[in-house]
Task: structure prediction
Amino acid sequence: MKSLFAVLISIMVLMPGTAIAHETEDDHTLEISDVWARKTRRTTSAAVYMRIHNATDKPDVILEATTPRASMTTLHMSSETDGIMRMEMQDTVALPAGETIAFEPGGLHIMLMGLDQPLKEGDVFPITLTLEQAGDVTVYVEVTGLSGPSARHH
Result:
């Protein structure tokens, strides 16, 4: 059963933008979907967005994210206070049991700094999340236009 699951994960990981399930030791899953980033004109920075549903009965924590496309990758939270947008680095991101955490514009995101080259619409690249309980999970980021993925599907 585990080998069939591994084959299914391998196939799904090759298809960016689709949901993937990562099986944990207790046979429950983390479901990661809608993984995307906007195209960029420069190599300074970009943000990665996704949805993570912790379908397990145990909380988990994202400790870090890494990608070969950037020299530095950090977890960030954007928020608005008194009309001023602020971005704050997060040491970790909690994934409570049974809940979905959205990484989206204006909120949580993974910041890529020092890109190896600008992100072009249609590019696909890996990003690996290191989780406290589930270990390393690699997903693929699909680069969209400036409007994000919703413009592509209409």
